[in-house]
TrEMBL record:
InterPro entries: DUF6879. It comes from the Bacteria. This is DUF6879 domain-containing protein. Residues 104-219 form the DUF6879 domain.
């Protein structure tokens, strides 16, 4: 069941933050800063406006490329649960997301959540039967030490669940964070071409049910 928006139900954004934004914007003097900086400020204002418009009207917003701020903010702001489906080639394999600076910050924030009693679950979806390497063993061991509940989904088990495998994270059963990797073009592995946030309750509920199906057929990390 999707949790209600306990903290924000019936309320707008914090008035002090809205006033701070408006005050800051009105203080920007195009004659007092370089033209390039003014163009940057204009672009950022348009981006922020588009973000809020999309959330308010469609409950969905897309970022072209690999996001950083959304991921860390959603993680640190979660109060109940995080459920992640991690594609091997994106997060552990050649792309090595979980070993990047962003990946390490993401895991460190999850460790803090686990210490506060937030349940964090992750399913590593393998892309080949021979992907049971030492690298994945170490990843699972490290995440378990942080308090993350980890399982592995083998290619042979995929027939038991419906739909294509996707790299997604469900925060507090209310926000679905979904990344789209590009086709691999070289030794560096896939890159993220788009990141999408979806707040639509029915969509998030279906994503949660899909995660539950995967969790049931996934197995505990291998030993030995």
């Amino acid at each position: 069941m999707v949790r209600p928006h306990e903290e924000n139900e019936g309320l707008g954004l914090p008035p002090e933050l809205v006033r701070r934004l408006i005050d800051s914007v009105t203080k920007v003097d195009r004659d007092a800063i370089p033209a390039l900086a003014f163009r940057l400020a204009t672009t950022e204002l348009a981006r922020v406006s588009t973000f809020f418009e999309a959330l308010a009207t469609s409950g969905e917003v897309t970022y072209e490329g690999e996001d950083r701020d959304w991921l860390l903010s959603l993680t640190s702001g979660s109060h109940h649960s995080i459920e992640a489906v991690s594609l091997y080639n994106v997060d552990v394999g050649r792309h090595h997301f979980l070993t990047t600076d962003l990946g390490r910050r993401y895991l460190a924030e999850q460790a803090r959540l686990c210490d506060r009693g937030v349940r964090v679950r992750r399913i590593h979806v393998l892309d080949a039967a021979d992907a049971h390497g030492e690298e994945l063993r170490e990843v699972c061991r490290q995440q378990r030490e942080l308090g993350i509940d980890v399982r592995i989904l083998n290619p042979a088990d995929r027939d038991e669940v419906h739909g294509p495998m996707r790299d997604i994270i469900i925060f507090d059963e209310t926000v679905s964070y979904e990344t789209t990797p590009a086709a691999e073009t070289g030794d560096d592995g896939p890159i993220i071409v788009a990141t999408r946030l979806v707040l639509q309750p029915d969509w998030v509920r279906r994503r949660g049910e899909w995660f539950g199906e995967l969790w049931e057929v996934a197995t505990e990390p291998f030993d030995g």
